[in-house]
Write a structure and sequence with these properties.
mainly alpha; rod-shaped; 108 residues
Length: 108
C-alpha cells in the first residue's frame, strides 16, 4: 500500500531551479573566480622567481597552467644544469682584528 502511495505522489520538477539557488550561484561564481586567481598567483609567482634565479626563462612558470606541467617543470629544474655564477665571497673590511706583526730580528 505504501508503495502505491509513493508511485501516485507528484514528483517535483527538477528542470526548474529555484530563485534562491540561482542567486546563490550568482554569488558563488565570482567568489570562485577570485579564489582561483589568488591560487594561481600563489603558485606562479614563486616558480617565476625560481626559474629566473636558476638562469631559465621565467615564462617556464606558465607550465603550471597545464595539467601535470608542474611535474615537468620540477624535473626540468631538478636535473638541468643551472646557469648560475656563484656569488663572490666578500670578507669583512676592515678585518675585525689587526694582522700580526712579523717578529723583529734581534739587532747586533
Amino acid at each position: 500500500m505504501n508503495f502505491l502511495a509513493m508511485l501516485l505522489q507528484n514528483t517535483p520538477d527538477t528542470t526548474v531551479v529555484p530563485q534562491s539557488m540561482q542567486q546563490a550561484m550568482m554569488w558563488m561564481i565570482p567568489i570562485f573566480m577570485v579564489v582561483g586567481i589568488v591560487c594561481l598567483a600563489i603558485i606562479l609567482i614563486p616558480f617565476w622567481f625560481i626559474c629566473k634565479k636558476a638562469g631559465f626563462s621565467p615564462w617556464l612558470a606558465l607550465l603550471n597552467l597545464i595539467p601535470l606541467g608542474n611535474l615537468v617543470l620540477l624535473y626540468v629544474l631538478a636535473f638541468a644544469e643551472w646557469k648560475v655564477v656563484p656569488a663572490p665571497q666578500i670578507l669583512p673590511y676592515p678585518p675585525p682584528y689587526p694582522p700580526p706583526y712579523p717578529p723583529v730580528p734581534p739587532s747586533a
